[in-house]
Design a protein that fits this description.
23% helix; single chain; six-stranded mixed sheet; Metallo-beta-lactamase, Chain A; 29% strand; 238 residues; alpha/beta; seven-stranded mixed sheet
Length: 238
């Protein structure tokens, strides 16, 4: 999904496993960029995107610490740029493989033909809800929304990608990670998940979003807040 986001270039593509969406955002071609949620096996496709648009990563933003969202963070950071993650999920970057069951590890190794390994990023920057990050000429607002994990966050960014139809009536963008999907929400039955916390996040962080918010989730297609407010059963049941 290439496009411009209020003058900002935005590209997204799925990782090689679990369909995790990786996002690349910059103020334009030939500029520094921000990479959001570099999951499993994204290095080659990310390299192609960076080369095509002449981009240089300035930071990696992580919506949470699950392996399918962070597996490529260390090679992408390359020891030179920071990996930003909420304080409550910081511990997950020490070794996210420890929270993955042996069946998932086995499936991973069978698919990629190599042993799953992990090296912690050398520069980890802890963030908190309400914080504003100014990176590569862009401003990202952090919304702490625990439930899927303790440190799950959403990243707010002004503007929308070009190519979004006018009838969508959206003016701002939220990278929702695994908090909110089109028609669903992130699961809460994994270690660190908390259904009551998720309901609070949906009620106090998600529902107050304006209807003109474009939602870019960690998995699956994008949506709008107006659509999710009207059709998402997890929001309607609150």
């Amino acid at each position: 999904m290439p496009g411009t986001l209020g003058g900002v270039l935005a590209v997204s593509f799925p990782a090689a496993a679990f369909g995790t969406n990786c996002y690349v955002m910059a103020t334009g071609r030939g500029q520094e960029c921000v990479v959001v949620d570099p999951g499993i096996g994204v290095e080659e496709q990310l390299r192609e995107v960076l080369q095509e648009f002449g981009l240089k990563p300035a930071a990696v933003l992580l919506t949470h610490g699950h392996i399918d969202h962070v597996y490529s963070v260390t090679p992408v950071c390359g020891g030179q740029i920071g990996a930003y993650i909420h304080t409550d999920d910081r511990y997950r970057l020490r070794d996210p493989l420890t929270s993955v069951g042996p069946q998932i590890i086995g499936m991973f190794e069978q698919q990629f033909g190599s042993r799953a390994t992990w090296t912690e990023p050398s520069d980890v920057v802890e963030v908190v809800g309400g914080q504003q990050l100014e990176i590569a000429g862009m401003r990202f607002g952090i919304r702490h929304a625990p439930g899927h994990t303790e440190g799950s966050v959403m990243f707010a960014l002004d503007g929308i990608p070009d190519g979004v139809p006018a009838e969508a009536e959206v003016t701002t963008t939220m990278l929702t990670g695994d908090v909110l999907f089109a028609g669903s929400i992130g699961r809460t039955d994994l270690p660190g998940g908390d259904h009551a916390a998720m309901e609070r996040s949906l009620r106090e962080v998600v529902l107050p979003l304006t209807d003109d918010t474009l939602l870019l989730p960690g998995h699956g297609p994008g949506s709008t807040m107006a659509r999710e407010r009207a059709t998402n059963p997890y929001l309607q049941n609150l």
